[in-house]
Amino acid sequence: MVVAGVCVIVTGSIVALASRDLQDQASAFPTPALSQPLLRLAHQYGATTGYAGYWDAAALTWQMHSDVRVYPVSRARAGSPCVHSSCTASAPGTCRAPARRSFLVVDPRFPSGPLDPGPSFGRPIRVATVPPARVYLYDYDIAGRFGH
């Protein structure tokens, strides 16, 4: 059974490589054009924790050398962010640590990511456009208001 599972994963990976899935989607992943202004904004406001869609979160954290951590969130039924399933499967507290200030990255390229928060998180202390994303910076850790 394990051998069959490994064969399926390897075959799927070979097919993805052969069809150039990653190369065709490369323009959708965050680049330093997003991560570097985001890092400067986070440092300017003392935000050490952020939240973004699944496909943005890991790449942004890596590009910012984990100086600022960006955790994955997805869209709940009502449209507000909720903790991504990759975190809920982990032990409590392993996906994020409480922050004093935080931010939400809304990237319209990924339809399953968070939407503009509207009034649900209160008034942000700053809203910045870092193409293609909008960044909402808050004076508290917004994770407490996420759906689960």
Number of H- or I-type helical stretches: 5
Give the class from helix and strand content and strand pairing. alpha/beta
Number of strands: 6
The shape is: globular
SSE pattern, N- to C-terminal: HHHEHEEHEEE
Fraction of residues in β-strands: 15-25%
Radius of gyration: 17 Å
Largest sheet: 6 strands, mixed
Amount of helix: 25-40%
In whole angstroms, the N-to-C terminal distance is: 34 Å
Short description:
By secondary structure, the chain is an alpha/beta fold. The chain is 34% helix and 21% strand. Mean pLDDT is 75; it is low at 20-26 and 88-94.
What can you tell me about this protein's structure?
This protein has 148 residues and is an alpha/beta fold. It contains 5 helices and 6 strands. The model is unreliable at 20-26 and 88-94 (pLDDT under 50).
Observed structural traits:
6-stranded mixed sheet; alpha/beta; 6 strands; single chain; 148 residues
Per-chain topology:
Layout: H1 2-18, H2 21-25, H3 32-45, E1 49-53, H4 54-63, E2 69-75, E3 81-83, H5 85-88, E4 102-106, E5 126-130, E6 133-138
Parallel strand pairs: 1-2, 1-4
Antiparallel strand pairs: 2-3, 4-6, 5-6
